Amino acid sequence: MSQLLLFNKPFQVLTQFTTNDDKSTLADYINQPNFYAAGRLDYDSEGLLILTNEGAVQHYLANPKFKQEKTYWAQVEGEMTDSALSALRKGVELKDGMTRPAKARVIDEPDIWPRNPPIRERKNQPTSWIELKITEGKNRQVRRMTAAVGFPTLRLIRYAIGDWTLDGLQPGASTLIDATLNLPRSNTNNTRRRTNGNRSQKTFKQANKRTRR
Fold first, then answer.
1. In this model, does residue 206 exceed pLDDT 50?
2. Model confidence over 22-66: pLDDT tens digits?
């Protein structure tokens, strides 16, 4: 049994605990010692971030090799078309390669909190909301995918990672849960040897750096 901290990251918060500037970080919201982010979420994106105090769990959740499906809600500029959705479902060519096929559909505007500050809206330019499910983690991938098919993202919220969602979590709120994970045996054994006994904070800081880009 592992403990996971589900956190609803607000807009313009860094997914790290320290910074050299005045930007808001996880330290402003998270008080659990030795918990570090399993993966990343861009500064200008919102939504679900999972933190853990186990190196093996961090690796499992953050590594695209294990294909944890991530669900995003994106508000895009313009009225989304069937042809654009079809392109997202097939995979989009980006500068760093082709994306895996995604699950994409138009959704109604979700019942969520207002963003502060709000997005810039053009008086004569409509917007659409789409749900996009991906199993990889290229840098700023969702934003680049929607832009590649002609619909720039205005607001981006990660709703779910696997079966975990941000339901019931307001921005800045977190909840600690118990989870049973079927971790790869070799990864689990190696991590146990490396972190047997009291796990050092240094170990998790190093792991955290590897998952951030």
1. no
2. 999 999 999 999 999 999 999 999 999 999 999 899 888 888 777
Pick the more confident residue, 117 or 7: 7
Are 146 and 152 spatial neighbours (Cβ–Cβ below 8 Å)? yes
Structure tokens at 40: 């990343």
CB contact set of 180 (below 8 Å; sequence gap of 6+): 1, 2
The answer for residues whose C-beta is within 8 angstroms of residue 213's C-beta and 6 or more apart is 40, 139
Distance CA 118, CA 87 (A): 29
The set of catalytic residues is: 42
Q: Is 131 exposed, middle or buried (0-12, 13-18, 19+ CB in 10 A)?
A: middle
